[in-house]
């Protein structure tokens, strides 16, 4: 811009000098008029170029202004997107921390449940062994009971076949009575004697 103004001033000064020189040399007015018109055309051309350049500069400034506004607008949009992204990132971090804490709690709970399950398994195995031992003992006692009952039945059968009976003989000192195997007649005799003594 300043360069154009400087060039315009130089051209005007040159035109003035030429005009003064022609006037001093006695050049005719027509020629001087043609020269003046030519100079004016040149000046107008320079002015037009200057105005055109000025307009171009103004247009350029307007374009730059629009570009700057657009750039600022884009910067604001980017900043807003960045802010939203930071907020979303912070929320994700919070959620991740919360999920991590929940996972830690669940892991602890799972470990406790696994320990309890292992303890229950050990207790169950122990109880199962005890139950199996009791069952074996019970089966053994049942077999022994059956054997004893069979023996008693055989004894009673033999006693009956021999015509004998079992009687209780009380001790004189009052201790527990003893069982005695006697014939039916002796049993009746003992019964009658005890009845008479009573």
Automatic annotation (TrEMBL):
Keywords: Coiled coil. Pfam families: LRRFIP. Residues 46-65 are annotated as: Disordered. Residues 55-65 have a biased composition (Basic and acidic residues). One of its GO terms (biological process) is regulation of DNA-templated transcription. Signal peptide: none annotated. Belongs to the LRRFIP family. This is Uncharacterized protein. It comes from Megaselia scalaris (Humpbacked fly).
